[in-house]
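Q: What residues go here?
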């Protein structure tokens, strides 16, 4: 609804309420003077009562909307905080993955170094056994004469 429509509706409501108030006042005067209420004056009283009831319900509806808007705002805020927490957790897991990657690299380089050391030790052992075998053969060969 446009602002112009709202202004027209507000003006119409104000004029109708003014007429109803005037008629309700006349009805109250009739009751005071005559002690009875004619049909002519009963209708404005009923309209005034209905208007007040609708106005009361409208105020409650506006208040309920405000409360709901506030609650939804708080829920959005909470979900935002939860999203923020999950974002931080994602960052932490990312850092952990990086650390595990570096650990894997270190373990890989250590296993290469250990493999090289093993080859060197095994080579030394084979070399030593070969030298000892050669020496034993030489001692045997020269020792028989």
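A:
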């Amino acid at each position: 609804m446009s602002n112009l429509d709202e202004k027209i509706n507000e003006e119409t409501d104000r004029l109708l309420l003014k007429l109803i108030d005037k008629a309700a006042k006349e009805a109250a005067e009739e009751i005071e003077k005559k002690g009875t209420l004619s049909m002519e004056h009963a209708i404005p009283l009923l309209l005034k009562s209905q208007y007040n009831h609708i106005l009361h319900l409208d105020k409650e509806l506006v208040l309920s909307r405000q409360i709901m808007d506030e609650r939804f705002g708080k829920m959005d805020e909470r979900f935002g905080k939860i999203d923020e927490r999950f974002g931080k957790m994602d960052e932490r897991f990312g850092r952990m993955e990086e650390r595990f990657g570096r650990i894997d690299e270190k373990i890989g380089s250590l296993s290469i170094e250990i493999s090289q050391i093993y080859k060197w030790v095994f080579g030394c052992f084979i070399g030593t056994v070969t030298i000892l075998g050669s020496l034993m053969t030489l001692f045997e060969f020269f020792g028989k004469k």
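A: Context that may help when evaluating the design: The CA atoms of residues 44 and 117 lie 108 Å apart. The chain has a mean pLDDT of 87.
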